[in-house]
Amino acid sequence: MYGAGMNWDLSDLSIAERRAAILGRIADAAKWANRDAADISFVAVSKQQPDDHIRAALAAGHCVFGENRVQEAQSRWGETFKDKRADLELRLIGPLQTNKALDAVKLFDVIETLDRMKLAGAIVKAAEKTGTLPELFVQVNIGGEDQKSGILPDELPAFLKGLKREYDIEPAGLMCIPPFGEAPSPHFWGLTELAARHGLEKLSMGMSADYETAIKMGATHVRIGSAFLGAR
Ligand SMILES: *Cc1c(COP(=O)(O)O)cnc(C)c1O
């Protein structure tokens, strides 16, 4: 329920206990929506977290992580926890500059923030060098906010056509960050509808405060930072 306050606050628990609690909530929300919990991926947002929190998450068996800066992610997953990398799925959930595209393509399995043609070009060119194209999600500016990155809902059809025509790529899904301070549900519904209209199966939406709502509305990937790994 939106506005229910701190009902997602699990800070008294250990990281392993929080993980179990969050997985339980994910399962409950999936059940409510008549969905299979196995179709929902819990992405741990590890940005700005100290190494011992990451270590605890890894020890608890967590293996899907989201990062919003390429450089920070390189230092964490390419250096500190390099020995764990092979067992993990890493997802870029923050803005990507074209001059970092090669680094991002080298490090990430999934880039969730494709939001312009020029970036698509840089990612494709980088993938030609590395030999692998990460899975791509298009970030949608679902609330039509001035300052926010993402493709506007009305411009999505043309953007998808352009990706196909220019680069022969089809994204796996859509990602959004609803406007801060607004009820997220209408925006989650909006993203679900857009994805359905374009035959896209994956939906990255929902964060610590609203992931259960997002799952009830169709999220396949929820990005949970503070509720799992602690306040930043
Ligand atoms: C930081 C971040 C999150 C996680 O936010 P929490 O509220 O800590 O769960 C999710 N998505 C994106 C894009 C982020 O930058």
Question: Would you mind describing this structure in some detail?
Answer:
The protein has 232 residues and is α/β, with parallel strands linked by helices. It has a single domain (15-229), classed as Alanine racemase (TIM Barrel, Alpha-Beta Barrel), CATH 3.20.20.10. The protein is 41% helix and 15% strand. The protein has nine helices and eight strands. Strands 7-6-5-4-3-2-1-8 form an eight-stranded parallel beta sheet. Strand 3 (89-92), helix 4 and strand 4 (110-114) form a beta-alpha-beta unit. Mean pLDDT is 96; it is low at 1-5.
Class derived from helix and strand content: alpha/beta
Number of helices: 9
Strand content: 15-25%
CATH T-level topology:
TIM Barrel
- The CATH architecture assignment turns out to be Alpha-Beta Barrel
| Shape category | globular
Distance between the termini: 23 Å
Low-confidence parts: 1-5
Counting structural domains, the number is 1
CATH level-1 class: Alpha Beta
**Rounded to an integer, what's the Rg over CA atoms?**
17 Å
Order of helices and strands: HEHEHEHEHEHEHEHEH
How many E strands? 8
The CATH superfamily turns out to be: Alanine racemase
Short description:
The chain is globular, with a radius of gyration of 17 Å. With 232 residues, it is of the alpha/beta class.
Write the layout of secondary structure elements.
Elements: H1 15-32, E1 41-45, H2 51-59, E2 64-67, H3 70-80, E3 89-92, H4 101-107, E4 110-114, H5 117-130, E5 135-140, H6 156-167, E6 173-176, H7 185-197, E7 202-204, H8 211-216, E8 221-224, H9 226-229
Helix pairs in contact: 4-5, 5-6
The structure holds pyridoxal-5'-phosphate.
Pyridoxal-5'-phosphate binds at residues 45, 47, 68, 93-94, 177, 207-208, 223-227.
